[in-house]
Q: What sequence folds into this?
């Protein structure tokens, strides 16, 4: 096991893999009710500055570009998460509204 993480809805976390290779994600629900899980995995690589220093053609600008690329990916992931959360909330609101109308009309 590389990482064990407990959280609630909306939690985000990241970790750096200690070695290359395939990884498995396991989810466990201790509660009795079914839960929906949505997750996004981004595999990225920010080059190590010491590794780049070995190549004369790469410099600090390329490291910053890689970091910006990772930051942009994080922003994109956050947008996807917020859109999915908005859709879930909209579904709940519309469902509640239908039930309220049903109760008041009866």
A:
């Amino acid at each position: 096991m590389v990482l064990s993480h407990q959280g609630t809805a909306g939690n985000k976390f990241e970790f750096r893999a200690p070695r290359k290779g395939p990884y498995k994600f396991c989810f466990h629900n201790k509660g009795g009710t079914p839960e929906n899980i949505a997750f996004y995995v981004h595999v990225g690589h920010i080059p190590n500055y010491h590794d780049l220093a070995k190549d004369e053609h790469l410099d600090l600008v390329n490291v910053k570009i890689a970091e910006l690329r990772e930051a942009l990916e994080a922003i994109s992931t956050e947008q996807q998460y917020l859109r999915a959360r908005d859709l879930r909330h909209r579904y709940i609101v519309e469902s509640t509204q239908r039930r309220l109308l049903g109760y008041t009309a009866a």
Observations:
- The two ends are 54 Å apart (CA to CA).
- Helices lie at 49-53, 60-105.
